[in-house]
Amino acid sequence: xxxxxxxxxxxxxxxxxxxxxxxxxxxxxxxxxxxxxxxxxxxxxxxxxxxxxxxxxxxxxxxxxxxxxxxxxxxxxxxxxxxxxxxxxxxxxxxxxxxxxxxxxxxxxxxxxxxxxxxxxxxxxxxxxxxxxxxxxxxxxxxxxxxxxxxxxxxxxxxxxxxxxxxxxxxxxxxxxxxxxxxxxxxxxxxxxxxxxxxxxxxxxxxxxxxxxxxxxxxxxxxxxxxxxxxxxxxxxxxxxxxxxxxxxxxxxxxxxxxxxxxxxxxxxxxxxxxxxxxxxxxxxxxxxxxxxxxxxxxxxxxxxxxxxxxxxxxxxxxxxxxxxxxxxxxxxxxxxxxxxxxxxxxxxxxxxxxxxxxxx
Length: 361
Fold this sequence. Notes:
Rossmann fold, about 30% helix, Pnp Oxidase, Chain A, six-stranded antiparallel barrel, alpha+beta, Thrombin, subunit H
């Protein structure tokens, strides 16, 4: 290995993080140890499912993965990650015998392939070439300048928990070169820990920043701030995560289908079906049967009863999701079920609020 190539890599990666996914324990140890010479943070995963979980948790700047993974295969994991961040660079390591699998991945943007056994000089150059310029200098100077302007001032912090917006006035207390610290209330502390990020309203602009460290006394360290477009949802479009009782029935192309609910509002619904072979056409009209547990009229003991209502919907989006498809649709509840559905949404909102209260005690 050429020491100069490692030094060149380190010059552009020393402040960045990388996720390495590999099931071979010896190779995992060897390459992770090497990567620590160049990257600030090296995260490890041993299968495709863990790789996806670690990606969501740590939001690395770049990913290296083996071409053959268990639990979730490499193609599925890469597609799932690209749905969340289509620009993240991913390097896939594989043998010539993996030719069919590697060809399957070739069309994915920001993805490069390296052949095993690994040549570390080639790996260094591939890492250097893969890092986008904006990732080499990930800190937005303007964001930090704006954060310094609101230092120790009460400004709105915005988070979301299962569809409930949690917004309180909190403070930025320290601004450093690469990160900043905030001191927040128990509610916002809980929300930021759950979401791993927060949105800060700053002089009529919105800055999103990611959680990197948890301190004592409700102090959190955030990094990688960026400007975003943020528009508060109105009450009709408050998309609540459904409970376990929520069921969806759909008659589609002469077939009765059972779907799982993801989240729902009075005017929209997200659904999951564990079958990615069914073709759902955008803008097509569908009829849905929605079922859910609803509290009885008793004031002290709430005995729940399973209720069904009818609705129509227009499909607006279809995406790969887990082992099947996520379907997003505009929802229109039939007149006979409007009051019942409103009660369910109110009940579900109250359940989530009570869950938050219990968790921050």
